[in-house]
Amino acid sequence: MTMSVLIIGGGLVGTSSAYFAAREGLNVTLLEQKSIGYGASGRNPGFVWLHCRNPGWALNISKKGRALYDDLRRDLPVPFEFRADGGLIYFHDERQAPIFKEFVAARQADGLDMTLLGNKEVRDLVGPIREDVVGASYCAEDAQINTPTVVAALAAGARAEGADLREGVTVSRLIFSGGRIIGVETNDGNFFADKVVIASGAWTEKLMRASDLEVPIGRERLQVMATKPLPMQIKPVVYGPTAAKAYGLFRNLPSWNDELFRSKIEEESGYEMLTLAAQRANGEILIGCPMDYPSEVDLFPTLDGLKAIADDIINDFPGLKKAGIDRVWAGVLPFTSDLVPVIDEIAPGLVMAAGHVFGNSAGPMTGKLISQILTEREPEIDMTEVRWNRELDPVIPGATLHW
Ligand SMILES: Cc1cc2nc3c(=O)[nH]c(=O)nc-3n(C[C@H](O)[C@H](O)[C@H](O)COP(=O)(O)OP(=O)(O)OC[C@H]3O[C@@H](n4cnc5c(N)ncnc54)[C@H](O)[C@@H]3O)c2cc1C
């Protein structure tokens, strides 16, 4: 008899799991509380970011995930937006140069295609950036997706393979019998299946708690603005120097100096900034992002967060000072204390795929791994780092996360 699977959550991880599981011939139903792409996957600016992925599982899955986009572009029934124009982190203080030099050398040793760019090269790639930019680390392997289009294409692929994707269905509790998962309770009645996949992103802790289970998956809110469509002027995905301090790969360098990476805007606003800009094919430029850590999922941008984006971008991208703003929003990304998700069978028949910090590179590939786990085959990547029973620190709401 065909194995039946329920998937909870319609983000990159859930839709990809549905697509690959349905391709294996499994009988798949996906339950999404709002609409496909409602969570972090529909709200992020689309960096497929290998630049700062830690060696080990994170870099392995990101490299595979980056390559998987070629297969998905060929196989999914509807197109999605993908651009392979690299990514950079610029800096505008000469004192930061030795740190970036050391960072690029370390990343080259990790096997990434990276170089250090100078002023003219950065300005050629990023039109509106400040003239006194000193340089940038550049990774040719970084790419960009229009994330909602990827989720929509994965959902269309899953449906084309026979999966049933239902929107507006909230799972309130998991149902067990004799220690084995047998189904879920929802606002639309109970659903039963042989196996259940939890792909509920930043909502996972809440869902697990309702079923008397604990998992330390935290929530980080990031705020974003989108300009109106503008002429094409930013080719790669772009981070500013404030973003460097978010990554252990920078912070652990012998040359690291934290004070050089703290801005006046951060001090005034109280937010750590992940200064970023990325331009989509339709011309809109996504800019951001102040970061904070709500105790529950909170999808509202704040006035002081939006002010911090405006101040930061006017400072570093004077060419965007007069850009019309079309939309603002916030999204919440999930994380664990060791920065890699939980992807494992956590009880008989119950598989967790949650806690993705870098879902754009790892999300679609996670779906492929989930289909291998569901069909009891050896996953094609070593999964030791993401197993359920590893030691994870508890999440402390409000505590700053560094990746
Ligand atoms: C602003 C922002 C910027 C980011 N930038 C990047 C980036 O540049 N690169 C990158 O790789 N990653 C980035 N991320 C992280 C990335 O978005 C996530 O890693 C990824 O989207 C996680 O995918 P997911 O499918 O696990 O979760 P989600 O996309 O959040 O999907 C979970 C889904 O589950 C649904 N759900 C939850 N609970 C229930 C329930 N009880 N019943 C039914 N449905 C439920 C939700 O509605 C949601 O649609 C960013 C995140 C944000 C918010």
Automatic annotation (TrEMBL):
<keyword id="KW-0560">Oxidoreductase</keyword>
<protein>
    <submittedName>
        <fullName>Glycine/D-amino acid oxidase-like deaminating enzyme</fullName>
    </submittedName>
</protein>
<feature type="domain" description="FAD dependent oxidoreductase">
    <location>
        <begin position="5"/>
        <end position="372"/>
    </location>
</feature>
<dbReference type="InterPro" id="IPR006076">
    <property type="entry name" value="FAD-dep_OxRdtase"/>
</dbReference>
<dbReference type="Pfam" id="PF01266">
    <property type="entry name" value="DAO"/>
</dbReference>
<dbReference type="InterPro" id="IPR036188">
    <property type="entry name" value="FAD/NAD-bd_sf"/>
</dbReference>
